[in-house]
Amino acid sequence: MTAVHPAPGPGSATAQQPSRGRAPASLLRGLLRALPRRLAGAFAVLFGAATLAFGALQLIPGDPVAVLLGPANTTTPEVREQIRHQLGFDQPVFTQYLHFLGQLLRGDLGQSYQLQRPVAGLVAEQLGPTLQLVGSAVLLALLVATVSAVATAGRRPGLRSLTGAWELVAVSTPSYWLGLVLLTVFSFHLRWFPVAGADGFGSLVLPAVTLALPLAGTLAQVLREGLEAALAQPFAVTVRARGRGRTALVVRHALRHAAVPMVTLTGWLTGSLLGGTVLVEAVFGRPGVGALVLGAVNSRDVPVVIGVVLFSALAFVVISAVVDALYTVLDPRLGNR
Amino acid sequence: MRIPRPGPARVLVPAVAAALLLTGCSGAKGGGTSADAGKPVAGGTLTYAVDTEPVSWDPHVSTQDLTAELQRQVFDSLVSEDADGKFHPWLATSWEVAPDLKSFTFHLRTDVKFHDGTPFDAAAVKANFDHIVAKDTKSQYAANLLGSYTGTTVVDPATVRIDFAQPSAPFLQAASTTYLGFYSPKALADSAAKLGQGGTADVGTGPFKFVSYSKGQEAVFEKNPAYNWAPPTAKHNGPAYLDKFVVRFLPDASVRVGALSSGQVQVAKAVPPQSVATVKADSKLKLLTQAQPGGNYNLWLNGSLAPLDDQKVRQAVQRGIDVDLDVKSVQFGQFPRAWSPISATTPGYAKELEGSWPFDQSLSNKLLDEAGWTGRDGDGYRTKDGKRLTLVWPQLTATATQQSRDILGQAFQADLKKIGVEVQRPALDVGGYSTLVYGGKANIVDLAWARFEPDVLWLFLNSASDPAKGGINATFLPDAQLDEWTNAARATLDAGKRAELYAKVQKRAVDLATVVPVYTPHALTGSSAKVGGLSFDSDTWLSFYDTWRTA
Lengths: 337, 551
Hints:
The structure holds two protein chains of two kinds. By secondary structure, chain A is mainly α. Chain A has 13 helices and no strands. Chain A starts with 11 loop residues before the first helix and ends in a 7-residue tail after the last helix. The radius of gyration of chain B is 24 Å and the shape is globular. In chain B, α9 packs antiparallel against α11 and α15 (480-490) runs antiparallel to α16 (495-511). Chain B is of the alpha+beta class. Chain B contains 16 helices and 27 strands. Helix content of chain B is 26%, strand content 21%. Classes of the chains: A mainly alpha, B alpha+beta. Chain B: Residues 86-465 form the Solute-binding protein family domain. Chain B: Belongs to the bacterial solute-binding protein 5 family. Chain B: Keywords: Signal, Transport. Chain B: GO terms for molecular function: peptide transmembrane transporter activity.
């Protein structure tokens, strides 16, 4: 990539203009061209995810009805048989699988065994707060990481090692513990934020910060490395030679180059965060898909597990589509391949 | 990773991390007497932080204590029971019991209305009891409480008769619990499939209406302004004092305590042992605690499987565990050790068992020698015919750390190793655990079972409580006398006679060494000093009907 970098022409502002104007068009074009391939891919991913989840749940040992009922054993054998029959556990596994796929194809995610509620509604209800949390955490992390990296890239070793230290601490702090510390300080003592729940902005701040800090640490490291690599390239010297300031160079030129790996990483992290919010949600008493899927796996509530898996797979598909599209905006050459 | 699984069943008893010794905290019981909460005031919202979340909100289905405790605010019962085990009228003004205890006739109040306006009457009682035993309801506990129920007869709108195939003395106690509470027949007919979801589908006659439920976050209840049928065991009549009652789900113990001390919630369930001192030292807070009634935390020894099919080996295990020391050191001296399979607060408790089977390592060694386990292998364990003396005691991963039971188990392991007995503790999920334990393939099973009724002894010890038939008799040791006495106690309402029978049952279970009683779990709840009228009922569940909150 370094070798083929297009050297900015004289008057870099004009040189950038066309690519900026091209951005929305190329984004749309890229998306449209890839659409059939993407849809087929998405379908394959969803099918695979559903099948894997179904298979994995079958591998858990023990009678599924017993698992569903928990360890109390005060249910009569008649009722157990009734449950077994109603949930189709008396059918061969393959029949259950086919039945399940048929349901999925009709767009029906089924009903939770445990909670007696339609899975789609259940997941939708729990997905909202999780998306809110993950979304704000990622935005916050990007902001913090960008500021930190831009401010320190290529600077004195002292400043660098200082920011490097906070990033390392942020990355290695368990989010569970971080959440407790933030709660103790900002909720229990200062009383700035409510302890729990998911009503309004106030209740989002602490959990979002808890999730964002480790993320910001990782992203800042990647971004700074990218920035420094870009700054070491010939074009940086050219820009500086034209009398541009360091900040302008970093923000207007280097950032774009460094952003590609960061976008990849952000996409991947966002996807994995969706399921990784369990602990933070538990600490802050927030609803969310994390706790939902955990409870469902423990009680082998197959429809709920598969419902969440499908939604997560879908999220990954969407995120990777967005990431790919962003590549072409950030670096138009990638779109012409 | 400590991830609280919603809904461990009754065996697991609510996650009470620890409790004070009875002596240390008797003053805190019945927090309503606290000076600073003053006289009852109407109005306001009270927030209650709990540690888990009901899996099903339907008390007719669920086995969870939490479901019963929270839904107590929404559902009333036929009768109420006081702390002495005496029954009082509630939705029934009076009742007659047939001499054979196979039929109970209740005379009902005629002024009671469900939240949806439907009147409460004999037909409503029938609809509910029939609903509980219907196969489609898939009841996991309430149907069991109804026992040998054969049907309900509507004698007239204000009179109803419940019939049983067997004498059913414990029925009145069961009828006083939330599990046999009453839904509006309209709700049963219209939204049967939604009862477990919580929220407005749950229509009862109680002092609070279930307004909304947001999974993972909170459940909201509002005062029923028409309520005027409180039982005499309550401290007032008429509507509840609180306008609103909110339950927040905060699985993390330190978050619950922090929320309590910062005034964001007014009552917090399951205060952890390390926070007990903090809560007690804070003048803005108070601590409520009460011993749980019913089955203690016990080890049940499987008498159908070698090597515990030999009574001498069972006895050696019973006397070879230093229960006093282990319970005291592992649980910070916060739980009293147990001598009987039922707790001291349960009616019919046999006090004479206290001190009757002390820790005695040399006796254990003698018994094992007599039983023929005289060899020793390289690891120092006893052997017989070349086989090591090994006991399998499965632990359920979801709840292993509750009340430090995992560490307690390690202490027991160490004790038993000293007499040459190896204890294996495989960690299993519910599926593997149920198969092993209720399939009779485990040597030791540990569990507690809260119920304010010595009939739990029937559940543990009567051979009809066969795990293959949905029972929990994990001793797998049919004993004619235990059967006879637990059956006979079901066939009389004479408290003296029942106490005598249950005392014999407790003693025989200990003598047969089919049980090693360990400790009595305590409910431990933190509350703001500004909350008044809050106390546990006989099941150690909080009722919020008499509760008020000052600013």
